[in-house]
């Protein structure tokens, strides 16, 4: 899967699961503000995934999709969800939700 495909799929997954994993006020915030300040980006998987997955993994086969709201400098102010996606489809996506 390409990075662009992973971004699209990650955003679809976020939309499908956000109401079940985020407080209602966060769902309202991201819904109302996404058009102006929202972002979905692919980045290299961060170190927190080693702890989440229980050990090291082949990071070059994965991308982390971040979904959130940007500040005035176009940097994430709030990340509502981080999604780890295996680019070869060998593993199901994993989520870290804003807490």
Biggest sheet: strand arrangement: 1-2-3-4
Shape: globular
Multimerization state: single chain
CATH C-level name? Alpha Beta
Distance between the termini: 29 Å
Within CATH, the superfamily carries the name dsDNA mimic, putative
Low-confidence stretches: none
Enter the CATH topology name. Answer: Nuclear Transport Factor 2, Chain: A
SS element count, helices: 3
* Main sheet makeup: 4 strands, antiparallel
Strand content: 25-35%
- Radius of gyration (CA) equals 13 Å
Helix content: 25-40%
The number of distinct β-strands equals 4
Order of helices and strands: HHEHEEE
Look at the helices and sheets and give the structural class: alpha+beta
Count of the separate structural domains: 1
Average pLDDT score: 91
CATH architectural name: Roll
């Amino acid at each position: 899967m390409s990075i662009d495909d992973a971004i699209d799929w990650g955003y679809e997954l976020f939309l499908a699961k956000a109401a079940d994993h985020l407080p209602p006020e966060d769902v309202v915030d991201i819904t109302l503000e996404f058009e102006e300040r929202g972002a979905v980006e692919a980045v290299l998987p961060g170190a927190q995934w080693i702890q989440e997955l229980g050990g090291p993994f082949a990071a070059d086969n994965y991308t982390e999709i971040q979904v959130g709201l940007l500040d005035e400098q176009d940097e994430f102010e709030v990340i509502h969800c981080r999604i780890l996606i295996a680019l070869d489809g060998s593993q199901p996506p994993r989520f870290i939700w804003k807490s």
